[in-house]
Amino acid sequence: MAAALPALVLGAGLLVAAWRWLRSAALPGRGGSMRGKTVIITGANSGLGRAAAAELLRMRARVIMGCRDRARAERAAREIRAEVGERADGAGELVVRELDLASLRSVRAFCHRVLQEESRLDVLINNAGIFQCPYMKTEDGFEMQFGVNHLGHFLLTNLLLGLLKNSAPSRIVVVSSKLYKYGEINFEDLNSEISYNKSFCYSRSKLANILFARELARRLEGTGVTVNSLHPGIVRTNLGRHVNIPLLAKPLFNLVSWAFFKTPLEGAQTSIYLASSPDVEGVSGKYFGDCKEEELLPKAMDDLVARKLWDISEVMVGLLK
Fold first, then answer.
1. How far apart are CA 309 and CA 300, in angstroms?
2. By residue range, what is the domain housing residue 251?
3. How many Å apart are CA 172 and CA 70, to the nearest integer?
4. Which among 106, 219, 244, 298 is most buried, taking Cβ atoms within 10 Å?
5. pLDDT score of 252 more than 90
6. Residue 233 lies in a domain
7. Out of 135, 182, 202, 273, which one is annotated catalytic?
8. In a 3-state reduction of DSSP, which class is residue 286?
C-alpha cells in the first residue's frame, strides 16, 4: 500500500492538472474590438481587475486603472504592457490614476480629473473590494467594508453618470459575490457601530452592490446606459489577505486553491464579457456568473430596500444634505 501511494498522488496530480487545463481552454472568447472605447476599472493593479485590464487592453480599449497605491499600479501597468505588447497603430492604452475608495475626497478628486480629461466613458467596472478585514473605519468614518465596497463605488458611479450618459450606449459592471446570500441590510446599524462581524459585513456590502446595481438600472432606463452585477466565483487573489489560515494548514490550502480555485483571468471572464460582449447589448438590471444570467434570492430583488439604501447612501456620501 505504501509503495502505491506515490503513484496515487502522481495520478491525482495529473488528473487535477488536466482538469485545470481543460477549464482554462474553455474560457469564453473575447467580445468584439474595444477600439475607441474608454474603460475605468477600480482596483486594477492586482487580481481580477488586473486580468480584466490586460484583456481589455488586448481588445484595444483605453483602460484607466483606478488604484489606491500609485506605485503598485504603475508597476502593474508596466507588466501588462510587456505582456500584451505595444501596438504600432497606437490602439489600446493603459492610464494609471490614483483612487482611494476609502476616501470620499479621493473619489471626488479622481472623478474631477476624469471629467476634465476624458471626452467619453464607455464602461465603468466597479471591481475593487476589501474582504473580511478587522474592524476599521474609512477616512470619513464608515465601516471599511461597507465604505469601500459600497459607498465609495456609489459616489464614484454617481459622479461619472453624466459622462456615461453622454457616451451611450455605455455600461456599468458591478462585481459582487455569491456571499451576498449571507448578508442582510440592517438600516439600524449600517456602520456596524453596535456590532461587527467581518464575514457578515462583507456579505452585507456585496448584497448592497446588487441592490445598488438593480436600483441604478431602474433609474437609467431609456438612457442607453446599462447596469449589471456579477459574481466571479472563488478566485485565487490577494483579496483574502485579512483571513488567517493556521500555519500548518497553509500547504493544504495552497494545494486546494491551486487545484480548484479560479485563476484571476478565469474569474475576470464575466467582467470582461459584460464590458465587451455584443450578447449583452441593452441587457440591464441582471446578475451574472460564468458569463450566464443567474437567479437572485428574493432579498436581493427587494425594490423597497434598494430604494431606501439608495436614499440613505446619497446622504452618507454627501450627494444630498
1. 12
2. 31-317
3. 24
4. 106
5. no
6. yes
7. 202
8. coil
| pLDDT for the residue 278 | 97
DSSP H or E stretch at residue 97: strand 93-98
pLDDT of residue 30: 53
pLDDT, tens only, 13-49 = 444 444 444 454 445 545 579 999 999 999 999 999 9
Task: Report pLDDT for 85.
Answer: 77
257, part of any domain? yes
Continuous segment of H or E residues that includes residue 103? none
What CATH number is given to the structural domain containing 289? Answer: 3.40.50.720
Q: Crossing angle of helices 47-58/269-276, nearest 10°?
A: 40
Whole-angstrom distance, CA of residue 54 vs CA of residue 141: 34
pTM: 0.87
Three-class SS state of 168: coil
Distance, first Cα to last Cα, the chain:
73
Query: Residue 133 phi/psi, 5° resolution?
Result: -85, 160
pLDDT at 250 > cutoff 80: no
Cα–Cα distances in angstroms (integers) from residue 175 to residues 22, 63, 181, in the given order = 25, 17, 15
> How many whole angstroms separate alpha carbon 245 and alpha carbon 190?
28
Output 248 or 290, whichever has higher pLDDT. Answer: 290
Task: Report if residue 16 sits inside a domain.
Answer: no
Cα separation values, 32 from 60, 110, 274, 291, Å: 10, 29, 12, 15
Q: Is 182 a catalytic residue?
A: no
8 A C-beta contact, residue 318 and residue 196: no
Total number of domains in the chain: 1
Residues 159-211 pLDDT 10s? 999 999 999 999 999 999 999 999 999 999 999 999 999 999 999 999 999 99
* Radius of gyration for the chain, computed over Cα atoms and rounded to the nearest angstrom: 20
